[in-house]
Amino acid sequence: MISSPLVPSFTVRTAVGFLALMLTVASPSVHAAKPSKEELRAMKREGVADDSTAKPKKRDDSAADARPAKPTPAEAANKQLDRLREKLEVTDDTEWTVITERISRVQEIRGTLWSNPAGNRPVALPADKGKRAAGGNSTSHAERDALRMAVDDKLPDAEIKSRLTRAHEIQQQNETRLAQAHTELRAVLTIRQEAIMVMAGLLPP
């Protein structure tokens, strides 16, 4: 049988054309037109709208770890004292030691009073918490508790009067001690420093 010379030529052209067609179908993006700016904006909007279907991102604990830790009461008190010292413009450490000792004395006695003056929120010293825990104002609390128990238990009026008189005596003694502590604190302050102490709630006007 005699082979026709046209068969190989036809077969090659057909295969090349078929291969080109397959590449066109498999890679449409190669020949696709570049999207316009309006189409890109639309695609971005659709992408934002479809974020609800995306998987939630994992929580980044590194950001939480980077947050500063809450200061302790002692650290907060030290910062208050530093701000007070800056307002008082005390540069000498020895002078500041004397002032803080007398402030501490005022705070200690004030804690023994039946109640602090309304509206006063004085500077808290680092040592105050320890003194309260050690029972620095235990006498005042004992008298308060005794009077409260007398009222709650409906004790006779004579007993209530006795405990009330005792509480009044303790309160007067503590108020006298506090007035003396105020005088001693004022003695180491200038007029401007005294005014600052009054505004800070550490001294009465």
What does this 3D model show about the protein?
With 205 residues, this protein is mainly alpha-helical. The chain has a domain at 73-136 and 176-200. Helices cover 68% and strands 0% of the residues. The protein has 10 helices and no strands. It has helices spanning 6-26, 28-31, 37-49, 61-66, 73-88, 93-110, 128-133, 138-152, 157-186, 191-200.
Write the layout of secondary structure elements.
Elements: H1 6-26, H2 28-31, H3 37-49, H4 61-66, H5 73-88, H6 93-110, H7 128-133, H8 138-152, H9 157-186, H10 191-200
Short description:
With 205 residues, the chain is mainly α. The chain is 68% helix and 0% strand. The protein has a domain of 89 residues.
What are the salient characteristics of this protein?
single chain, 205 residues, mainly alpha, flat
So how many helices? 10
User: How many DSSP E strands?
Assistant: 0
Q: What is the distance, rounded to the nearest whole angstrom, between the alpha carbons of the first and last residues? A: 130 Å
Judged by helices, strands and strand pairing, the structural class is mainly alpha
Compute the average pLDDT. 75
Residue share in helices?
55-70%
Oligomeric status of the shown chains? Answer: single chain
Shape: flat
Weakly predicted, low-confidence segments: 48-52, 117-121, 128-137
Characterize the biggest β-sheet: none
